[in-house]
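Weekly modeling sync, notes
Attendees: AB, CL, MP (scribe)

Item 1: holo prediction request
CL wants a bound-state model with zinc ion before deciding which constructs to order. AB pointed out that an apo prediction alone won't tell us much about the pocket. Agreed to run with the ligand included and paste results into these notes for async review.

Input as submitted:
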Amino acid sequence: MFKEDEKFIRQAIREALKAKGDTSPNPLVGAVIVKDKRIISRGYHKGPGYPHAEIEAINGAPESLAGSTLYITLEPCSFWGKTPPCVETIKMIPFERIVIGTVDPNPRVNGKSIKILKKAGYNVSVGVCENEVKKLNPYFESFIKSFKTYLLLKVAISKDSFIYSKEFPEKYITSKESRIDLHEKRFGFDAILVGSNTINVDNPILDTRNIKKNYKPKILILDFSNKLDYSKNIVKDPKRLKYVFVSKKFRNILKDRSDLKYIFIKDKNESWDIIKNDLYNKGIISVMIEGGKKVLISALKSEMVDEINIYRSTINLKKGLKFDIEKIIDKYKNFKLLEEKKIGNDIFLRYRCLQV
Ligand code: AOF
Ligand code: ZN
């Protein structure tokens, strides 16, 4: 490894992030090409069907690549997918070195390209800024090994286990620090799921405004009985893509708008099966489930939730909508507490399902 490798892999990470929110089910990948310590070309993967990051960088290079170094956040692919294998293109170029952030966890790659490149005589370094690079795609590995969408259920709850009270004047139960932490988490998710009742009552924005203004995760709305109020913020906003799960019987009376997509279901339980197994076709491999109570319980009953995050505040609400989350978790014995820490004044708890 060379002194400047970390600096250039971080530049490649910056490239990758340009497509944040657009690449799933593919990962975010960035590349830079460096010659005489100068970046001469950059590239990133824009999404399914578009060229891969290193191909963008190679094709955009203004001068000969002989003797240059290729930095890529992810191991190049070695198979024909929607695009040809990148490793074959790379092998046509006399790079002096190839620096890779991390191995591609895709079982069709998983180290194959690194072997191919080494065998072809390239000087290859792997694992530069590996933790940072892996953070680009927190759910890609679990997706590509199972073809299932990762479901995280989030609850913000009072000390005495209420999630809502009419008598509590402020909008939030938890502290500002917890909300910033939540927005950081949301930034890793393709979609946020809520029931139509939560939209109708809370009129939420469901974005990441405390940390990043422009990232707008897609919205999934469970609205089996077609009760959604179309005048609410998020429903009105044409920039937020929404998938509404609604009973087939309303098929003919729903609005026809490009930001509103309908998924017709026969019964309520069918939603979870579709969310877990089919949404990657719509570029969604990770979903944060945010409520309300009925939705949270229905998600847990489906036994498809991978992770639970609880933000527990120090406030007692005394009245309102009670949600005994710990009791419910105990019913599903396969959840294990993996993390417990303070965030501001709140307690944050992270449970992981060990066998979904
Ligand atoms: C790379 N560079 O920029 C990306 C890679 O369907 P395809 O052909 O686009 O292939 C998708 C797979 O390619 C994806 O699952 C992952 O293993 C790899 N992604 N590889 O060499 C890139 N985005
Ligand atoms: Zn590729």
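Recorded for review: Residues 52, 76-77, 86 surround zinc ion (ligand 2) (CB under 6 Å).
Action items: CL to compare against the apo run; MP to circulate these notes.
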